[in-house]
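Input/output pair, single chain:
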Amino acid sequence: MSFKDKNAGRNVSGKILAVIGMAAIAVVNLVPFVWGALTSLKTAREVAVYPPRLFGTVVTGEHYQTVLKGTFGRALINSSLYSAAAIALGVLCALLIAYALTRFKFRGKKLMFLMILFGIPLSMGSAAMVVPNYMMLSSLHMVNRWFTLPLIYTAYNLPMAVWIMIGGMQAIPYAIEEAALIDGASRWYVIFRLIPRLSLPTMACAALMIFIGAWNEYTVSSVMVNSADLYPIQVSIYNYIGFFGQEWGPLTAAATLAVIPILLVFTYLGKFLVSGLVAGAVKG
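Output:
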Protein backbone atom coordinates (compact mmCIF):
# COMPACT_ATOMS: atom_id res chain seq x y z
CA MET A 1 0.00 0.00 0.00
CA SER A 2 1.38 3.38 -1.02
CA PHE A 3 1.87 6.36 1.30
CA LYS A 4 -1.03 8.23 -0.35
CA ASP A 5 -3.37 5.28 0.20
CA LYS A 6 -2.44 5.19 3.89
CA ASN A 7 -3.12 8.91 4.27
CA ALA A 8 -6.45 8.56 2.45
CA GLY A 9 -7.41 5.69 4.76
CA ARG A 10 -6.51 7.77 7.82
CA ASN A 11 -8.53 10.72 6.56
CA VAL A 12 -11.58 8.53 5.99
CA SER A 13 -11.22 6.98 9.46
CA GLY A 14 -10.88 10.41 11.00
CA LYS A 15 -14.01 11.66 9.27
CA ILE A 16 -15.97 8.59 10.37
CA LEU A 17 -14.86 9.06 13.99
CA ALA A 18 -15.77 12.76 13.80
CA VAL A 19 -19.25 11.94 12.49
CA ILE A 20 -19.76 9.32 15.20
CA GLY A 21 -18.61 11.75 17.87
CA MET A 22 -20.90 14.52 16.62
CA ALA A 23 -23.82 12.09 16.44
CA ALA A 24 -23.18 10.97 20.03
CA ILE A 25 -23.05 14.58 21.25
CA ALA A 26 -26.27 15.36 19.38
CA VAL A 27 -28.05 12.36 20.89
CA VAL A 28 -26.92 13.18 24.44
CA ASN A 29 -28.08 16.78 24.12
CA LEU A 30 -31.28 16.30 22.14
CA VAL A 31 -32.79 13.19 23.74
CA PRO A 32 -33.63 14.87 27.09
CA PHE A 33 -35.20 17.85 25.32
CA VAL A 34 -37.23 15.69 22.94
CA TRP A 35 -38.35 13.42 25.78
CA GLY A 36 -39.43 16.43 27.84
CA ALA A 37 -41.27 18.04 24.92
CA LEU A 38 -43.15 14.81 24.19
CA THR A 39 -43.96 14.35 27.89
CA SER A 40 -45.45 17.83 28.02
CA LEU A 41 -47.99 16.75 25.39
CA LYS A 42 -49.19 13.68 27.31
CA THR A 43 -52.17 13.51 29.65
CA ALA A 44 -51.52 13.50 33.40
CA ARG A 45 -52.33 9.78 33.57
CA GLU A 46 -49.93 8.86 30.76
CA VAL A 47 -47.17 10.93 32.33
CA ALA A 48 -47.38 8.74 35.45
CA VAL A 49 -47.31 5.44 33.52
CA TYR A 50 -44.52 3.05 34.51
CA PRO A 51 -42.40 2.08 32.72
CA PRO A 52 -42.45 5.45 30.95
CA ARG A 53 -43.28 5.62 27.26
CA LEU A 54 -41.80 7.99 24.73
CA PHE A 55 -45.09 8.68 22.93
CA GLY A 56 -48.53 9.11 24.41
CA THR A 57 -51.77 7.87 22.91
CA VAL A 58 -53.39 11.30 23.16
CA VAL A 59 -51.86 14.71 22.40
CA THR A 60 -53.05 17.38 24.82
CA GLY A 61 -52.12 20.93 25.75
CA GLU A 62 -53.51 20.79 29.28
CA HIS A 63 -50.09 21.21 30.88
CA TYR A 64 -49.36 24.31 28.81
CA GLN A 65 -52.72 25.77 29.85
CA THR A 66 -51.87 25.10 33.49
CA VAL A 67 -48.48 26.76 33.13
CA LEU A 68 -49.74 29.83 31.29
CA LYS A 69 -52.57 30.36 33.78
CA GLY A 70 -50.08 30.52 36.65
CA THR A 71 -47.12 32.82 37.29
CA PHE A 72 -45.07 31.46 34.39
CA GLY A 73 -46.27 34.15 31.97
CA ARG A 74 -45.10 36.88 34.32
CA ALA A 75 -41.76 35.12 34.79
CA LEU A 76 -41.36 34.87 31.01
CA ILE A 77 -41.83 38.63 30.69
CA ASN A 78 -39.44 39.25 33.58
CA SER A 79 -36.69 37.13 32.05
CA SER A 80 -37.16 38.83 28.68
CA LEU A 81 -36.82 42.27 30.28
CA TYR A 82 -33.87 41.22 32.45
CA SER A 83 -32.05 39.70 29.48
CA ALA A 84 -32.73 42.70 27.23
CA ALA A 85 -31.47 45.12 29.90
CA ALA A 86 -28.38 42.99 30.54
CA ILE A 87 -27.63 42.81 26.81
CA ALA A 88 -28.00 46.56 26.27
CA LEU A 89 -25.91 47.51 29.30
CA GLY A 90 -23.38 44.71 28.84
CA VAL A 91 -22.69 45.37 25.15
CA LEU A 92 -22.37 49.10 25.77
CA CYS A 93 -19.89 48.63 28.61
CA ALA A 94 -18.00 45.96 26.68
CA LEU A 95 -17.72 48.26 23.67
CA LEU A 96 -16.25 51.11 25.74
CA ILE A 97 -13.87 48.91 27.73
CA ALA A 98 -12.65 46.99 24.68
CA TYR A 99 -12.10 50.22 22.76
CA ALA A 100 -10.05 51.68 25.61
CA LEU A 101 -7.93 48.53 25.94
CA THR A 102 -7.22 48.22 22.21
CA ARG A 103 -6.78 51.87 21.24
CA PHE A 104 -5.23 53.68 24.23
CA LYS A 105 -2.10 53.26 26.33
CA PHE A 106 -2.43 53.90 30.06
CA ARG A 107 -1.03 52.72 33.36
CA GLY A 108 -2.52 49.48 34.61
CA LYS A 109 -3.76 48.40 31.19
CA LYS A 110 -2.22 44.92 31.43
CA LEU A 111 -3.52 44.46 34.97
CA MET A 112 -7.04 45.39 33.85
CA PHE A 113 -6.86 42.91 31.00
CA LEU A 114 -5.77 40.16 33.39
CA MET A 115 -8.63 41.02 35.74
CA ILE A 116 -11.03 40.64 32.83
CA LEU A 117 -9.60 37.22 31.99
CA PHE A 118 -9.84 36.10 35.60
CA GLY A 119 -13.45 37.32 35.69
CA ILE A 120 -14.59 35.19 32.76
CA PRO A 121 -15.37 32.13 34.96
CA LEU A 122 -17.98 34.28 36.76
CA SER A 123 -20.36 33.66 33.87
CA MET A 124 -20.06 29.91 34.49
CA GLY A 125 -19.52 29.77 38.26
CA SER A 126 -21.67 32.61 39.57
CA ALA A 127 -22.87 30.50 42.51
CA ALA A 128 -19.52 31.07 44.24
CA MET A 129 -20.32 34.80 44.48
CA VAL A 130 -23.84 34.51 45.85
CA VAL A 131 -23.04 35.10 49.53
CA PRO A 132 -20.70 38.12 49.15
CA ASN A 133 -22.95 39.67 46.51
CA TYR A 134 -26.02 39.22 48.68
CA MET A 135 -24.29 40.80 51.67
CA MET A 136 -23.08 43.75 49.61
CA LEU A 137 -26.39 44.40 47.84
CA SER A 138 -28.35 43.89 51.05
CA SER A 139 -26.27 46.58 52.79
CA LEU A 140 -27.06 48.91 49.88
CA HIS A 141 -30.78 48.02 50.00
CA MET A 142 -30.61 46.71 46.43
CA VAL A 143 -32.00 43.22 47.04
CA ASN A 144 -35.41 42.22 45.66
CA ARG A 145 -35.63 45.22 43.33
CA TRP A 146 -36.54 45.30 39.64
CA PHE A 147 -32.98 46.30 38.71
CA THR A 148 -31.19 43.76 40.94
CA LEU A 149 -30.97 40.88 38.47
CA PRO A 150 -30.13 42.96 35.35
CA LEU A 151 -27.17 44.50 37.18
CA ILE A 152 -25.95 41.12 38.39
CA TYR A 153 -26.38 39.48 34.97
CA THR A 154 -24.45 42.33 33.38
CA ALA A 155 -21.60 42.12 35.90
CA TYR A 156 -21.27 38.35 35.64
CA ASN A 157 -21.25 38.24 31.84
CA LEU A 158 -19.31 41.43 31.20
CA PRO A 159 -15.79 39.87 31.27
CA MET A 160 -16.71 37.38 28.56
CA ALA A 161 -18.33 40.12 26.47
CA VAL A 162 -15.25 42.35 26.82
CA TRP A 163 -12.94 39.51 25.81
CA ILE A 164 -15.03 38.86 22.70
CA MET A 165 -15.16 42.57 21.81
CA ILE A 166 -11.39 42.92 22.22
CA GLY A 167 -10.83 40.20 19.65
CA GLY A 168 -13.19 41.91 17.22
CA MET A 169 -11.64 45.37 17.62
CA GLN A 170 -8.15 44.05 17.14
CA ALA A 171 -9.25 42.90 13.68
CA ILE A 172 -10.35 46.44 12.70
CA PRO A 173 -7.47 48.41 11.13
CA TYR A 174 -6.77 51.61 13.03
CA ALA A 175 -6.22 53.35 9.68
CA ILE A 176 -9.99 53.38 9.18
CA GLU A 177 -10.45 55.39 12.38
CA GLU A 178 -7.61 57.73 11.49
CA ALA A 179 -9.19 58.43 8.10
CA ALA A 180 -12.54 59.17 9.78
CA LEU A 181 -10.92 61.51 12.31
CA ILE A 182 -9.00 63.32 9.58
CA ASP A 183 -12.25 63.81 7.66
CA GLY A 184 -13.73 65.57 10.68
CA ALA A 185 -15.51 62.77 12.51
CA SER A 186 -15.57 63.07 16.29
CA ARG A 187 -14.35 60.42 18.70
CA TRP A 188 -17.94 59.82 19.78
CA TYR A 189 -18.93 59.15 16.18
CA VAL A 190 -16.08 56.67 15.81
CA ILE A 191 -16.98 54.80 19.00
CA PHE A 192 -20.77 54.72 18.70
CA ARG A 193 -21.32 54.72 14.93
CA LEU A 194 -18.24 53.54 13.04
CA ILE A 195 -16.93 50.79 15.32
CA PRO A 196 -20.33 49.10 15.85
CA ARG A 197 -20.88 48.88 12.10
CA LEU A 198 -17.45 47.31 11.57
CA SER A 199 -17.78 44.87 14.49
CA LEU A 200 -21.41 43.83 14.14
CA PRO A 201 -20.70 40.05 14.24
CA THR A 202 -18.59 40.49 17.36
CA MET A 203 -21.27 42.56 19.09
CA ALA A 204 -23.91 40.01 18.15
CA CYS A 205 -21.74 37.23 19.57
CA ALA A 206 -21.26 39.15 22.82
CA ALA A 207 -25.00 39.82 23.02
CA LEU A 208 -25.71 36.13 22.47
CA MET A 209 -23.36 35.08 25.28
CA ILE A 210 -24.93 37.61 27.66
CA PHE A 211 -28.40 36.40 26.74
CA ILE A 212 -27.50 32.77 27.42
CA GLY A 213 -25.95 33.66 30.77
CA ALA A 214 -28.91 35.79 31.82
CA TRP A 215 -31.68 33.53 30.56
CA ASN A 216 -30.32 30.30 32.05
CA GLU A 217 -29.21 31.66 35.44
CA TYR A 218 -30.98 30.19 38.47
CA THR A 219 -28.88 30.15 41.64
CA VAL A 220 -28.33 33.89 42.04
CA SER A 221 -31.85 34.86 41.01
CA SER A 222 -33.38 32.44 43.52
CA VAL A 223 -31.50 34.24 46.32
CA MET A 224 -31.53 37.87 45.23
CA VAL A 225 -35.29 38.16 44.69
CA ASN A 226 -38.05 36.67 46.83
CA SER A 227 -41.10 38.26 45.27
CA ALA A 228 -43.21 36.25 42.84
CA ASP A 229 -43.64 39.36 40.69
CA LEU A 230 -39.87 39.52 40.15
CA TYR A 231 -39.08 35.84 39.62
CA PRO A 232 -37.30 34.97 36.34
CA ILE A 233 -38.26 32.00 34.25
CA GLN A 234 -35.80 29.51 35.76
CA VAL A 235 -37.09 30.08 39.29
CA SER A 236 -40.64 29.75 38.03
CA ILE A 237 -39.82 26.37 36.50
CA TYR A 238 -38.38 25.14 39.78
CA ASN A 239 -41.66 25.96 41.54
CA TYR A 240 -43.17 22.90 39.89
CA ILE A 241 -40.88 20.76 42.04
CA GLY A 242 -42.96 20.81 45.20
CA PHE A 243 -42.85 19.24 48.66
CA PHE A 244 -44.98 16.30 47.55
CA GLY A 245 -42.98 15.58 44.42
CA GLN A 246 -42.53 16.82 40.87
CA GLU A 247 -45.42 17.89 38.69
CA TRP A 248 -43.91 16.34 35.60
CA GLY A 249 -46.52 17.58 33.14
CA PRO A 250 -46.34 21.31 33.99
CA LEU A 251 -42.60 20.98 34.68
CA THR A 252 -41.79 19.66 31.21
CA ALA A 253 -44.20 22.14 29.60
CA ALA A 254 -42.54 25.08 31.37
CA ALA A 255 -39.07 23.79 30.49
CA THR A 256 -40.06 23.41 26.83
CA LEU A 257 -41.41 26.96 26.72
CA ALA A 258 -38.21 28.23 28.33
CA VAL A 259 -36.06 26.63 25.61
CA ILE A 260 -38.02 28.09 22.69
CA PRO A 261 -36.65 31.68 23.04
CA ILE A 262 -33.09 30.32 23.09
CA LEU A 263 -33.75 28.36 19.88
CA LEU A 264 -35.22 31.46 18.23
CA VAL A 265 -32.28 33.65 19.26
CA PHE A 266 -29.78 31.06 18.05
CA THR A 267 -31.63 30.79 14.76
CA TYR A 268 -31.16 34.51 14.17
CA LEU A 269 -27.79 35.18 15.83
CA GLY A 270 -26.17 31.74 15.68
CA LYS A 271 -24.41 32.56 12.42
CA PHE A 272 -22.57 35.37 14.23
CA LEU A 273 -21.31 33.10 17.01
CA VAL A 274 -18.37 31.50 15.22
CA SER A 275 -17.49 34.60 13.19
CA GLY A 276 -17.58 36.72 16.33
CA LEU A 277 -15.42 34.37 18.38
CA VAL A 278 -12.72 34.10 15.68
CA ALA A 279 -12.89 37.74 14.58
CA GLY A 280 -9.56 38.52 16.19
CA ALA A 281 -7.82 35.31 15.17
CA VAL A 282 -5.85 36.98 12.38
CA LYS A 283 -4.29 39.44 14.81
CA GLY A 284 -2.61 38.98 18.13
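The beta strands are 241-242, 245-246. The first strand starts at residue 241 and ends at 242.
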